[in-house]
Amino acid sequence: MTIGALIGALVSGRTTDLIGRRCTFWIVDIFYIMGWLAIIFSKGVWLLDFGRLSLGLGFGLTCFVGPVYLAEITPKNLRGGFMSIALSMASYGASFSFLIGSFISWHMLAIIGCIPCLLLLLCLFFIPESPRWLAKIGKEREFEAALQWLRGQNADTSHEASEIKDYIENLQKISDDKILNLFQRKYVHLVIKMRFPLQIPATVLGASLIDKFGRRTLLMASAFGECLGCFLTGLSFLLQDHNWWKEVSPILALIGVLVYLGPYSFGMGGIPWIIVSEIFPINVKGSAGTLCNLWSSAGDPSSLLTSSMFSRVLMPSGTFFIYSSICGFGVLFVAKLVPETKGRTLEEIHASLPHILQ
After folding, report:
1. Residue 8 region, left (φ>0) first, then alpha (ψ -120 to 50), else beta?
2. Membrane-spanning regions, if any (predicted)?
């Protein structure tokens, strides 16, 4: 599945830009359905492997197209909370799978996993294409119709439509969406900003706070909580290594893990993907999303390797102290470099970074 996710991440941005957000959802759902069906009807290991690979491909594409589509269709005052709730569905799905997986067979679990994919297949007939993508490719009538459908038939969309069209026209005068363009001086710092955080789906707490306190505040609080959680866990291993307070170290380890998981889920988990979908202009969003998605997917195997190497050289306590230092650096990193995007349209966000349009 990790290999599939890496491949999906590699092509996610370009696919989404070439055929559109809605058509990419069709491809995503086909991969999901193929994956589950392969697992359901498998009689040996090869079909199981193919099923997991197909699910990984779908997941790699979803990690980009999902947040981007939501960011492009939701109003600015609802965008953060709406996207946080949507991203938290992955947490609910995983929890539900672990729960029912304790009582049913893996074969039945695969059948149940296929049900949401079939529901998505039906829903795709009714959702509109992203208005911003339609405007980018020059389909003005479809753009206005999609925006009106999303905002309601009686809503006045003239100002929003004009703002989107003017901004896209200015961007299209600059450059095409190529991966090498990201390393121009005006874009490279955005790439650096957005791939420091890790990727774990946000929870309902983050959804309720993100549009109130903002992205930067929650990210800094999350990084600080992770820093404290890793430090407490490392301290518990250090006490255990020296046979100090043996009765305290297991409790301290549990507290450390819980302190880490809470902030991780409401901050660094989902918010980075929200900001990634907001901060990049549409003329580089595909390439930027590919790079961010690929880097995030590559973090799964590399983190296991790094953890194994650190544990052998530095022992568990040293490993967690290093992780704590990295999270502590994250607080400063977010405070210094990550812009606030709360309560602003995508066009307003990009306009607040004037160097992009120079």
Report:
1. alpha
2. 23-41, 53-70, 82-100, 106-127, 218-239, 251-276, 313-335
